[in-house]
Design brief:
- This protein is of the alpha/beta class and 653 residues long.
- Helices cover 28% and strands 24% of the residues.
- It contains 16 helices and 30 strands.
- α6 packs across α7, α9 crosses α13 and α11 packs across α15.
C-alpha cells in the first residue's frame, strides 16, 4: 500500500490505493483546512507535492502557476503511489491562538459572577458534592448490608432527600468501605429540584477525599472545543484549553456535517472525531491541574443542537429539513463513559438543553452564564459565528432566532481568508491619499492571509476612504497599482506584495470576498432587525447589546458598525461576554440553581424560523450594502463619510 509522509510534521501513514489525501492526513493526525467538506470549492486544502503524483487534485481554485509548482487540493487528490506532501502554513490549523487571552477592543467585558458572589447570595450549591462517613463496623447486632449501612448513615447525618444507589457503587462498595476501616467518602448527585427527586450515590472512595472534588466544563463548538477543570470546593478554574474540533475535516459548517452523517457510517465517524478532540483536551488539562480521573465527578456540556446530536450519535437528518425538528432538546443526566468520554464510571455528563434546531445549548448556556435571564434590562444577545444566534429579552420574556451567516467571519469563502492564527492580518489602515496600507498580524509575523476581524477592519477602512463603494466594488479610477484586475477577470486590492508576505503569493482582497462579508453581516443585522420588528421593539428601547463568542473579542466596534454588522448605538451600551457557552457550563457546575432554572428559561424562549418569517428577506436585501440602503439608520457613519469626502475633495482642490 502507498505511504504518505506529511511535512513539516514528519508524520507518515499507510493507506489503500485510491484514498483521498485529505483522509490520509486525518489518519496521520495532520490537520488541513477543509472548509467545504471535500467538495473542491473553497481551495483551502492546498498542499505541495514534493515527491510523487496524485490522481486528480486540481480545480479552478488553483492557478496554472500553482499547478505547475506542484500544488494540489487535498480533498480532490487520490493517493496512487508513495508521496511526500508539504502542508503550507496557510493550510494548517494553529490551536495556539485559540488559547491566547483576548482583550476586547473598545468593548466592555461584563463582570462574571464569582464564587464569592454565589456564597453571598446563598447560591453556592454544586450539583455534585462529597460527604465523609465514619461508618459503624458490622457486628452480630448490626449486620445490615453494606449499602444499607451507607444509606442509613447518609440519611441520619447529611441527606434529607430520598436516596438511590448507582449499580456501579453496589459492585465495589464492599471492598471500598473496608479499605480504611469503614471510613469512606460518598459522592452525591443532587436532584435538579430540591423539593422533589432523589439524591443519587454515584461513587464511594476509601478515606476522606472531600477536599478532592472536581468538575469539568465543556463547550463543544462547530469549529472549536474548549474545556476547564473546576475545583468544586473553591470554585476555581485550575486549567483550561481549547483546540479545533476534529470534525472540521468533514466540513466547516453544520450543514455539510449533517449531510455527511446521513451517509454510511458518517454519524459514527463524526461522533468519534469530536470525542477524540474532547478526550485529548481532557487529558491535557487534567494532567496540568494535577487531577486524577477518579476525582472528577461531573462534566457539564454545552453545544449547538447539531454538535450535541453528533456527539450523542443522534441522527441530525431532520435538523436541516423543514419544519426543522431536532431529535431531542432536553437530556437526562448521562454517564460520561456511556457517550465515549474518557472518565471513570461514576462521572455524570450534564448536557445543556436546546431551544430548536438552530438555537442550541451553547446559546442557552450563554443566556444563563451572562445572567440575562435574571436581568430587568432589555438585552440583545448576539453570538457571532458561522451560524449566528440572536436572543432579545429579559427576565420576563425572550425571543430568539438563528442566522446563517456563512464562514466569512472565520476566514472562509475568501481567496486568502484564514482562521485567526499567527501571521493572519487582524488589523488594517489605509492612507486616504496614496491608498498604501498598513497591516498588523497576529504574533507580529509575516502576513499569510486575512482572518475575520481583519476582514471587517479592512472592508470598513476601504469603504471610508472611497476605495470601494457601498456595494463593495473597487473604484477603478484611483491612481494606485494596488487596485488591479486579476487574471480571471476579478478586481482586487493588493494588501501585501509577495516579497513582503509569508507565503509565495500576493495577499489580496477580492470583490467576491467583500460580497461574502456583506452577505454575512447582512444576515446578522437583518436577523436582529427582524426579531425586533416582529415583537414591536425599536432600537432605542434596547438597554444593551452583549456580544458572545471568541470572535467578538477581536471586533473593532466602530468598524463593525461602519459596515452594518451591528446596529448603530452608543458603544457604552455594548458589552462582551466571551465564550458564553463555556461560561454557562462553568456556572452550572458551581450552582445547582442554574440547572433548576434552565428548563424554565428554554420554555420562555420563543423561537422564530427566519426563513419562514416574511419580513426577514426584506430586511436582508436592504442590508446588502455598506452599511445599509437606508443611511438614516447609521447617522454617525453617514456624518463621518461626508466629513471625509470634504477633506479629500479639499485636498484634491
Amino acid at each position: 500500500m502507498p505511504r504518505v509522509r506529511f511535512e513539516p510534521h514528519q508524520r507518515e501513514t499507510e493507506v489503500s490505493e485510491g484514498t483521498l489525501l485529505l483522509r490520509a492526513a486525518l489518519d496521520a493526525g495532520v490537520h488541513i483546512n477543509a472548509s467545504c467538506g471535500g467538495n473542491g470549492v473553497c481551495g483551502k486544502c492546498r498542499v505541495l507535492l514534493e515527491e510523487g503524483e496524485v490522481e486528480n487534485g486540481v480545480s479552478e481554485k488553483l492557478s496554472q502557476e500553482d499547478r505547475d509548482a506542484g500544488y494540489r487540493l487535498a480533498c480532490l487528490s487520490r493517493v496512487t503511489q508513495d508521496l511526500r506532501v508539504r502542508v503550507p502554513v496557510e493550510s494548517e490549523l494553529d490551536a495556539s491562538v485559540l488559547n491566547l487571552q483576548a482583550t476586547p477592543r473598545k468593548t466592555a467585558a461584563i463582570k462574571q459572577v464569582s464564587l464569592e458572589d454565589f456564597k453571598v447570595q446563598g447560591l453556592f450549591l454544586p450539583p455534585i458534592e462529597k460527604k465523609f462517613l465514619q461508618l459503624p463496623s458490622p457486628s452480630s447486632e448490626d449486620n445490615c448490608s453494606d449499602v444499607t449501612r451507607v444509606v442509613d448513615n447518609l440519611k441520619f447525618h447529611h441527606e434529607e432527600h430520598r436516596l438511590e444507589v448507582d449499580f456501579s457503587v453496589i459492585r465495589k462498595i464492599t471492598e471500598v468501605i473496608r479499605e480504611q476501616d469503614f471510613q469512606t467518602t460518598a459522592t452525591l448527585a443532587r436532584p435538579v429540584h430540591e423539593d422533589s427527586g432523589r439524591t443519587s450515590v454515584m461513587n464511594v472512595q476509601p478515606g476522606d477525599t472531600t477536599d478532592r472534588n472536581f468538575a469539568l466544563a465543556l463547550d463543544v463548538g462547530t469549529t472549536t472545543v474548549f474545556a476547564q477543570v473546576l475545583d468544586l470546593n473553591k470554585g476555581e478554574v485550575l486549567a483550561e484549553y481549547g483546540d479545533f474540533n476534529q470534525q472540521m475535516s468533514y466540513g466547516e459548517d453544520i450543514i455539510n456535517r449533517i449531510v455527511y452523517a446521513e451517509k454510511g457510517d458518517g454519524l459514527q465517524e463524526l461522533s468519534q472525531a469530536v470525542l477524540e478532540t474532547i478526550n485529548r483536551i481532557l487529558e491535557k488539562i487534567l494532567e496540568e491541574a494535577g487531577v486524577d480521573r477518579d476525582e472528577v465527578s461531573t462534566i457539564t456540556i454545552a453545544g449547538n443542537t447539531t454538535m450535541t446530536q453528533l456527539l450523542l450519535k443522534l441522527n441530525p437528518r431532520y435538523i436541516r429539513r423543514s419544519p426543522y425538528v431536532p431529535t431531542c432538546t432536553l437530556f437526562p443526566p448521562i454517564k460520561a463513559r456511556d457517550i465515549g468520554i474518557d472518565l471513570r464510571e461514576h462521572a455524570l455528563a450534564l448536557i445543556y438543553p436546546s431551544v430548536s434546531s438552530y438555537v442550541g445549548g451553547d446559546i442557552v448556556a450563554g443566556i444563563m452564564g451572562s445572567l440575562m435571564y435574571q436581568s430587568e434590562e432589555v438585552t440583545l444577545y448576539v453570538d457571532i459565528g458561522t451560524n449566528a444566534e440572536v436572543v432579545i429579552g429579559n427576565k420576563d420574556w425572550m425571543v430568539c432566532a438563528a442566522c446563517s451567516a456563512g464562514p466569512a467571519f472565520e476566514g472562509g469563502g475568501m481567496k486568502l481568508g484564514m482562521r485567526a492564527k499567527r501571521g493572519a492580518i487582524e488589523d488594517f489602515s489605509i492612507d486616504p491619499f496614496t491608498y498604501e496600507p498598513m497591516v498588523l498580524t497576529i504574533g507580529e509575523e509575516k502576513p499569510v492571509g486575512i482572518c475575520g476581524s481583519g476582514l471587517i477592519t479592512t472592508v470598513a477602512s476601504l469603504f471610508e476612504t472611497g476605495v470601494i463603494d457601498n456595494q463593495g466594488k473597487f473604484n477603478r479610477e484611483l491612481d494606485t497599482p494596488r487596485i488591479r484586475e486579476a487574471e480571471e477577470g476579478i478586481w482586487e486590492y493588493v494588501m501585501v506584495w509577495k516579497d513582503e508576505a509569508g507565503v509565495d503569493r500576493d495577499i489580496v482582497l477580492q470583490e467576491p470576498d467583500i460580497d461574502n462579508l456583506i452577505r454575512a453581516k447582512g444576515a446578522i443585522y437583518s436577523g436582529c432587525m427582524t426579531l425586533m420588528s416582529e415583537i414591536g421593539l425599536s432600537l432605542s428601547e434596547l438597554d444593551r447589546v452583549l456580544l458572545a463568542g471568541g470572535f467578538g473579542s477581536y471586533i473593532d466596534l466602530e468598524k463593525a458598525i461602519t459596515i452594518g454588522l451591528l446596529p448603530e448605538m452608543d458603544p457604552d451600551r455594548i458589552g462582551f461576554v466571551g465564550n458564553g457557552s463555556l461560561m454557562g457550563a462553568k456556572m452550572s457546575s458551581l450552582n445547582n440553581h442554574i440547572r433548576q432554572n434552565v428548563v424554565e428559561v428554554t420554555r420562555k424562549m420563543t423561537n422564530f424560523e427566519l426563513s419562514e418569517t416574511t419580513s426577514y428577506m426584506d430586511n436582508f436585501m436592504a442590508s446588502l450594502f455598506l452599511p445599509h440602503t437606508d443611511l438614516d439608520k447609521f447617522p454617525r457613519v453617514q456624518a463621518r463619510l461626508n466629513e471625509r469626502k470634504k477633506i479629500l475633495s479639499g485636498a484634491s482642490g
